[in-house]
Amino acid sequence: MSPYSHISALVQPHLAGLEPYQAGKPLEELARELGLTDAIKLASNENPLGPSPKAVAAISQHLTTLHRYPDSHAYHLTEDVSRHLGVEPRQLIFGNGSDEILDLLVRALVPPGGEVVSTTHTFLMYGLLTRAVGGVFTPVPLDGMQVDLEAVFRAVSDRTRLILLNNPNNPTGAVFYREAWESFLESLPPRVTVVLDEAYIDFVDDSRVPQGLDYLAEDRPLVGLRTFSKAYGLAGLRVGYGYGPSGLLDILHRLRMPFNVNRLAQAGARAALTDGEFLARTRELVRRGREELCRELNRLGLDTAPTQANFILIEVGRSGREVYQAMLQEGVIIRAMDAYGFPRHIRVNVGLPEENRRFLQALAKVMGLSGRT
Ligand SMILES: *Cc1c(COP(=O)(O)O)cnc(C)c1O
User: Which of 238, 273, 308 is the last residue of a domain?
Assistant: First the structure.
């Protein structure tokens, strides 16, 4: 027995089995491990165009004030986003990524033994954060690749406090539509809070997809989550936000760390919000790229799930983890999907056209499909 084993026995029992979050492999790590310096990363749904140039310029201007604490209320960022979305400042809360808002919501709403209903094959943080507070995570099976809102409703019990949904869903890319969403919302008992995670909403081009903003009301327990990490190209800066009824957000503000959004993040996010040109370019790149990638993958004989996000779930018909490992050797970082319940799939995000080509070539080589392009 290790002389330190009593230390791990000191933690709360419900934390003992907590799985670590498996992030996409950073480029720097692959360089360290394999000495590859020209690797590409298409694993974390990041923006291949880089950060918004306006954000970079604004951040540089704020470097000389880093000795000062940031504005703990993110006053200007809140004002800007409030105008941008047409919501009240008190209906907004910012976080160190939207992950932080999720964490606050779970901590505020889920007692030990309380139930969080979500779906299978979704964002891993949902289950992790639930288990971290001693909650019970109830994943409802997808219908094919689709979130089945009626089944989610049927899974709600007396102990359910929170429902976590992701539209488009990561990692399937599938969406649910306004009609199903509206009957779902109307059917829920008022004690259940719904979180609509809209991390990929900027990539949607199907007009039937609901926007949580249209359902925001002071008396409705609904919180929408958005992030600057994906379409705005600021994943490394860590800014996201929630919008919802001020009565609930007021509590989340008390729970959060006072300086959770740092100075550079506040400045960068404000500037990115004004960079409509960058957002439009990003959307165009993603829409074209996902169409082209799907076409080429299908031509290689691989099945792709219909996607409204900036990534594609691909069935590889063999161990996705082995394909992932072989792709690393080719200097292409993608994501194995076993942790998401898809042992025979991989997920790739849309990159620059030359990155997409390199991914396709490497995949064809790794899977022995090169003759069929
Ligand atoms: C990327 C992502 C987020 C955003 O996370 P941040 O903490 O804002 O970087 C949230 N939800 C899902 C489902 C995501 O894939």
Answer: 273
Mean pLDDT of all residues belonging to the chain:
96
Return the pLDDT at 8.
81
Q: Is the pTM of this model over 0.90?
A: yes
227 lines ligand 1 (CB under 6 A): yes
371: buried, middle or exposed (CB in 10 Å: 19+, 13-18, 0-12)? Answer: exposed
| Amino acid letter, residue 245 | P
What is the rounded average pLDDT of the residues 77-82?
98
Q: Decide which of 222, 246, 273 is a domain's last residue.
A: 273
Rounded to an integer, the average pLDDT of 72-80 is: 98
> In the structure encoding, which two tokens stand for residue 45, read together?
């749904």
Residue 297 has pLDDT above 50, yes or no: yes
Structural domain harbouring 33: 20-50+277-372
Domain count, the chain: 2
CATH number of the domain within which 300 lies: 3.90.1150.10
To 10 degrees, the CA torsion angle through 22, 23, 27, 29? Answer: -40
Report, in this order, helix, strand and coil percent for the chain, each rounded to 5.
Answer: 45, 15, 40
Domain assignment present for 12: no
Contact 197 CB / ligand 1 (< 6 Å): yes
Mutation test residue for ligand 1: of 230, 256, 307, the one with most atoms within 8 Å of CB: 230
Please tell me the residue having the least CA distance from ligand 1 atom 11: 199
